[in-house]
Design a protein that fits this description.
The complex is a heterodimer of chains A (340) and B (285). Chain A is of the alpha/beta class and 340 residues long. Chain A has eleven helices and twelve strands. In chain A, the strands form two sheets. An eight-stranded mixed sheet of chain A has the order 6-7-8-3-9-10-12-11, with helices on both faces. In chain A, strand 7, helix 7 and strand 8 form a beta-alpha-beta unit. Chain A is globular. Chain A starts with a strand and ends in a 14-residue tail after the last strand. The C terminus of chain A is likely disordered. Chain B has 285 residues and is mostly helical. Classes of the chains: A alpha/beta (340), B mainly alpha (285). Chains A and B meet through helix 2 and helix 3 of A and helix 8 and helix 9 of B.
């Protein structure tokens, strides 16, 4: 399949007082056209850093991108001029649904004013890069119609009324619906949703996720969805990629992923979901410090299947089924012919 | 318009803030209408030594001073000086402090460091001491008082704007607009400034009170406009040698300073509550 987004060997570090924190270690990752990909991992494993690297919003003074390629629809996002990307790609072809719907609106302007501002610059009718100093009336009217229609589509009551409100006057769930609407308005090819439901009630979460999934499917938009909640990943993702301490360890279609995990970390992660049979269990050990991470496979100090090879070098990408890739020297459930 | 009406309604509900607003309004009216309200407008420049130090009467509401001039009339004209000094000094401070704070807060490089260190130098010396030093060096006049106050007050705004800008830059919506290609100027003017405007307005209002007090202090020390200016601080200084017999001479300007400063402080406190965006409601709400 022709991939929309390909991340190859991406290495990102953050300069800290104690040295360079190697937050992403040669990450390989891809999102197909129209595919919903879940990026799963514990807090601090680099999910958000990867999402931000794709969006190009890593803090410029601390982040060091030492190697790698982020290819989006044939363009290398790391090599191109940032200003050009800002006008042509960001907010147009790649949009973003933030984690926290409470700081995502400017509190001093009405929601309508902020959506107008977005459409003034990023409406699908507008020329990318054209100076949008003024906003032609014809386009404004067309955009307004589009906005109202989409607000209805995301099931917001009384769209006209909501546009006149201030952000603090609507609920968190409504704000997140607005965020999804705003992410869809420029008619993008890829939406990056960074834990979009973490801040919401569980009942609202399901609604928002279903909405996001339905709209993405209807419009053929790819979604990169980061979460630490395996349940939500199972709900909406076509494919799931797991990250551990800055390395991607396994990537598989959702069903395969949950039925037959190959990487020991993935297996332990799935087992750590609270259940009636197993109760609550965790993974012994701690997430490694990223200043001086373990060599080779970063999971090896906590892994039960560890061997000398694991510390020596990081496993290559191995096929473990259709579209199922794993990076492990000793994957679960595969009898290796070559193993002696 | 709706916002203004909303503001007035809130103000009416908050008694102390309304009192503050009333006092400020009174000061402005008095300053503008001084020639009409005063009973002896010529007394600002002309003296009448035989009638000196007379107690309050129907003829002289607050008595007369050491030159026989009407204290009440001079008080009204003094309000003009007070307002002029406070408004210009605060205006200059705001015009210097806000851009400095915005630029220093937005950028994270040596320019930012340099600007903040400069304002730190000003803040390191107590404001009144620095103002006295500057005014003393330049000589007594209204212009120099304004200069001394502006030079010592702008770092307060720079600091405030700097801190607020830094925290505003962490907001998702600011980050998003930067990622979408918004220019630094656009981010500062459309995102940062509107969000910090309420704390700026409150700081400015309360700062007016402080400025008036400092201006009066400079006047009292003889660093303000020279005699025969009816400046309030100077009037109090002149009245000292006639205390406690001529109590009205010092009481009138003292009370005026007290009421005006209190007015600005009460109004500023009230505004702080009213302008809090969390308690604000939309126009149709």
């Amino acid at each position: 399949m022709d991939d929309l987004l390909t991340v190859a060997d991406l290495e990102v570090g953050f300069q800290t007082d104690r040295g360079l924190a190697r937050v992403l270690d040669r990450v390989n990752f891809h999102v197909g056209r129209g595919e919903i990909v879940g990026l799963v991992g514990e807090s601090g494993c680099g999910k958000t850093t990867l999402a931000r690297a794709i969006l190009g919003v890593l803090p410029a003074n601390a982040a060091r991108i030492s190697s790698g390629v982020i290819d989006f629809d044939g363009r290398n996002l790391l090599a191109e001029d940032p200003q050009g990307l800002a006008t042509e790609v960001r907010g147009r072809q790649i949009t973003f649904v933030p984690q926290d719907p409470f700081s995502s609106f400017n509190p001093v302007f009405t929601i309508g004013a902020q959506i107008d501002e977005l459409m003034k610059w990023k409406s699908p009718d507008s020329e990318p890069g054209a100076a949008a100093r003024f906003y032609p009336r014809v386009r404004r009217r067309a955009d307004r119609g589009r906005v109202l229609e989409l607000l209805r589509t995301v099931q917001l009551p009384d769209p006209e009324g909501i546009l006149k409100k201030y952000p603090h006057e609507v609920s968190g769930g409504q704000r997140q619906r607005l965020m999804i609407a705003m992410a869809l308005l420029p008619e993008p090819q890829l939406i990056i949703a960074d834990e979009p439901t973490t801040a919401l009630d569980v009942t609202i979460q399901a609604q928002i996720l279903k909405l996001l999934k339905r709209l993405a499917a209807e419009r053929g938009v790819s979604v990169l969805f980061t979460t630490h909640d395996l349940g939500t990943a199972y709900e909406i993702c076509d494919r799931v990629t797991v990250m551990y301490a800055g390395q991607e360890v396994e990537s598989a279609p959702s069903d395969d992923f949950f039925a037959a995990p190959r990487h020991p970390y993935t297996k332990r992660l799935l087992e750590s979901l609270p259940s009636r049979e197993h109760g609550i269990s965790g993974i012994p050990g701690q997430i490694p410090a990223l200043i001086d991470p373990p060599s080779g496979c970063r999971f090896h100090p906590r892994c039960t299947r560890v061997s000398d090879r694991c510390a020596a070098r990081r496993p290559d990408v191995t096929d473990a089924g259709p579209a199922h890739r794993v990076r492990c020297h000793h994957p679960v459930g595969i009898v290796r012919e070559a193993a002696s | 318009m709706e916002t203004l009406r909303f503001l007035l309604r809130k103000l009416a509900a908050d008694r102390t803030a309304a009192l503050g607003a009333l006092l400020i309004l009174l000061l402005i009216v008095v300053a503008i209408a001084a020639p009409m309200l005063s009973t002896h407008p010529q007394d600002v420049t002309e003296f009448n030594p035989p009638g000196r130090l007379q107690p309050p009467s129907v003829e002289h509401f607050f008595g007369t001073d050491r030159m026989g001039s009407d204290v009440y009339s001079r008080l009204l004209f003094g309000a003009r000086i007070t307002i002029a000094i406070a408004v210009i000094a605060i205006g200059v401070s705001v015009l210097i402090g806000i851009p400095v704070g915005l630029v220093a807060g937005y950028y994270r490089n040596w320019v930012s460091d340099a600007l903040m260190r400069i304002s730190d130098i000003f803040l390191a010396v107590p404001q009144i001491v620095l103002a006295i030093a500057i005014a003393q060096t330049l000589g007594p006049s209204i212009e120099n008082v304004i200069l001394a106050l502006s030079a010592t007050y702008w770092p307060f705004w720079a600091r405030l704007v700097y801190a607020e800008t830094r925290s505003a830059l962490n907001e998702t919506y600011v980050e998003a607009s930067i990622a979408l290609g918004a220019s630094p100027g656009r981010v500062m003017l459309f995102h940062v400034l509107p969000n910090i405007s309420s704390s700026l307005i409150v700081r400015t209002t309360i700062g007016m009170g402080g400025t008036i007090l400092t201006a009066a202090t400079l006047g009292f020390l003889g660093l303000g406009p020279p005699a025969p200016s009816p400046e309030w601080g100077r009037t109090i200084a002149e009245s000292r040698e006639f205390l406690p017999e001529a109590w009205w001479y010092a009481t009138a300007p003292g009370l005026a300073i007290f009421l005006v400063v209190m007015g600005f402080n009460l109004f500023g406190d009230g505004l702080r509550d009213i302008l809090d965006p969390r308690t604000r409601r939309s126009a149709d709400g």
